[in-house]
Amino acid sequence: MPLLPESTQRIRAIAARYPHGQSALIPALYVAQGEQGSLSDETLAEIAGLLGMTPVDVKAVASFYTMFYRQPGGKFVFQVCGTLSCALCGAEELIRHMEEKLGIRAGQSTPDGRFKLEVVECLGACGSGPVMLLGDRYHHNLTPELVDSIIDELKTAPLPEGLPAPQVESAGKPER
Amino acid sequence: MANEIVFSQNHIPGIADIATYLDNGGYQSLDKGLGMTPDELIEIVKESGLRGRGGAGFPTGMKWSFVPKDTPKPRYLVCNADESEPGTFKDNELMLVNPHQIVEGMILACHAIGSQQGYIYIRGEFVEHIRAVSGAIEQAYEKGLLGENIRGTGVTVHLAVHPGAGAYICGEESALLNSLEGERGLPRLKPPFPAVSGLYGCPTIINNVETLANVPHIVNNGARWFRQWGTERSPGTKVVSVSGHVNNPGNFEVPLGTPMMQIINDLAGGVRKGHTLKAVIPGGSSVPMLAASECDIAFDYESIAAAGSMLGSAGLIVMDDSTCMVWAARNLLHFYRHESCGKCAPCREGTDWLYKTLARIEETGGSESDIDLLLDICDNMDGKCFCPLGEAAIAPVISSISKWRDEYLAHTAHGGCPMRREP
Question: Among residues A132, A88, A59, which one has the least CA distance to residue B331?
Fold first, then answer.
């Protein structure tokens, strides 16, 4: 599925703000993933065309960074930190609890494709562990009760279109 | 608090908004700083003794002076906001609470190195922080504090936010530059150092968020004022991120040289009730662990080095007596194995073997020879990795074995972790 005209326009505008258009690659991948939820070969090739790169170079970058998804996953992705400070505060037990609650193992999505559970490395919020990133929001000082209420609420929430992504167009040098 | 510099405005409601920031003396340093020559600006930062707050502790003024003066190429400033070092969450708070302070510091740094374009590279998970800093930049443009001819000084500075996408290695400055150029985040061979050939092959200075946040205060108040805190070789304050088994975890800005136990007990509330201190990692996960008996030291670069560890990013991870040190080392090696970029063999293979061996000892006890195997792998990585990531990965292994060898042996004797809490 080709990117929406708004998305290609956004990517071109971001690229114009850098001395070299390739610098816009990570922001461009976010734009595409924000729209489509994951990055297909077709989408990567389209971005390559927009930025004057080869598809294989774009693929190499998309596969290097953990925040980009090559396969469609859950609509709501729980990224729970498993690194030391959070683990000292009970992250391992919390992850086991979430596995049971969701009926899946870490790394898997629920059969209906609504939820995905990921154990990720340090999220840089170690003072309020255990923490998780859900969409664009951090959740701090998690307990089994707290994640239960978050999951229960999302069971009936409307499904988002793509995946939330950082937006960087608002700031910086005006277009040249 | 009286001893705060970069956190001194955190208590002011709405300080993230430019109107409030300006009302509280914000951007005042530009009147003074942009009126100085770049050399004068570099000199005042040199005199202050400010050292890089990202981990390496390199003197900031000296770093700035490495930019060639006669280059025809554009020069770039990059603010490293890829905060991903386990145990460290100071830039997190600095960006969310007081983003204009960082913008102000970046404008001054750009002037000092003769750069008209700065980027702030923020880790992709920090969506809210990207929003906060982008908003601050946008407001600064609206007020004429960014762009052409700032406040009639003739100085031009443009700033932009660039997002990362989930890669610890991009905190390493040359990997960050590759990432900013739209490449995989692999480190570059040094020399040439970025100050000579960095972003797009142009002279580039990379500074940490906290480092740049200090600069407006130094320019406003002078080098001597800054040196009223800290020690001769570690002047100023440091934001210490305390996490793990303490009652009151969080960020605390303290004068360098503050006793480490005072930070743990008085500020972070001490270890949990019914437990005693066992170990700390003083400077983020990449520095050697210290046993409780080694913790009666001052928190500054030279005292922590004398104790056999490093101040690093000041991510102080506290572990009490319920912690299995083999488990802790295994947890951190899981991190380094995942984050190794794969460019060089000693790190790519070494972190994998270290993790597998630690996992074997923790799960099944392994054998006594596994302990020697771990040390042998560390020896094959030490000084042989392409960038500091590999060197960092061996710190928890070597320090935990040298200080808690008995725990490793107990695993071997017990056929697995004697402390393991069953699910």
Answer: A88
Domain count within chain B: 3
Q: Report pLDDT digits (tens) over A111-161.
A: 999 999 999 999 999 999 999 999 889 999 999 999 999 999 999 999 887
**What is the value of ipTM here, to two decimals?**
0.95
Q: Which of A84, A126, A133 sits opposite B331 (nearest CB)?
A: A84
Q: Are residues B19 and B115 in the same domain?
A: yes
Structure tokens at B76: 């770039």
One domain, residues B128 and B247: no
Nearest to A87 among B88, B165, B331 (CB): B331
Q: Answer whether 0.90 is exceeded by the pTM.
A: yes
Contacts of B130 in chain A (CB under 8 A): 166-168
* Nearest by CB: A61 against B161, B183, B285: B183
Residues of A in contact with B319 (CB under 8 A): 88
Q: What digits encode the pLDDT tens for the residues B127-157?
A: 999 999 999 999 999 999 999 999 999 999 9
In this structure, the number of other CB atoms found within 10 A of the CB of residue B275 comes to 14
Domain that holds residue A53: 5-64
User: Tell me: the pLDDT tens digits for A16-75?
Assistant: 999 999 999 999 999 999 999 999 999 999 999 999 999 999 999 999 999 999 988 888
The domain that holds B285 is classified in CATH as: 3.10.20.600
Asked whether residue A47 falls in the same domain as residue A87, the answer is no
Name the token pair of B107: 């404008």
Burial per residue of B281-295, b for 16 or more beta-carbon CB atoms within 10 angstroms, e otherwise: bbbbbbbbbbbbebb
Q: Do B166 and A96 touch (CB under 8 A)?
A: no
Q: Which tokens go with B162? A: 């660039």
Query: Does one domain contain both B338 and B260?
Result: no
Chain A CB contacts of B138 below 8 Å: 170-171
B47 min Cα distance to partner chain A (Å): 32
CB contact under 8 A, A168 and B124: no
CATH no. for residue A119? 3.40.30.10
